[in-house]
Amino acid sequence: MAEGRIKGAFKDGRFWKIPLYNEMPKIIPGTRGPKGKWRKQRQEVPTRIHVNGNSIKNNIDKENLEPVIIIRHGWSHKIYCDEVEIQGPCKLTYSPHKSMVGGARVWIEVDPNIPIIHKNFAVL
Questions:
Q1: Which of 39, 77, 85, 93 has the most CB atoms lying inside 10 A of its own CB?
Q2: pLDDT tens sequence across 71-115
């Protein structure tokens, strides 16, 4: 209260007097400290899952196989894995004229709030 964040509050002796507006005090938001890291809006970009054809071609002659399935959360976060389990509705899309980032023409779209279980993965 000493920072002046409660509108109209003043100290009378040892006690604070706080005026009420519609049965509540008016509090001015603080400007110090870290900003909240929680998501303020629901993510609108669906989670997309596709197969990397180049990795399939490269795995033919290798002993250590690269994961070929890519899970994209939004635009930047990618998870590479070998197996995916989708626990909810999803949509398989083929678009020969409009590709995804990375050139994929076939992918699975999943609502960002549906859990996806992936096995044998690497985050790159």
A1: 93
A2: 888 777 888 888 888 888 888 887 777 766 677 778 888 888 888
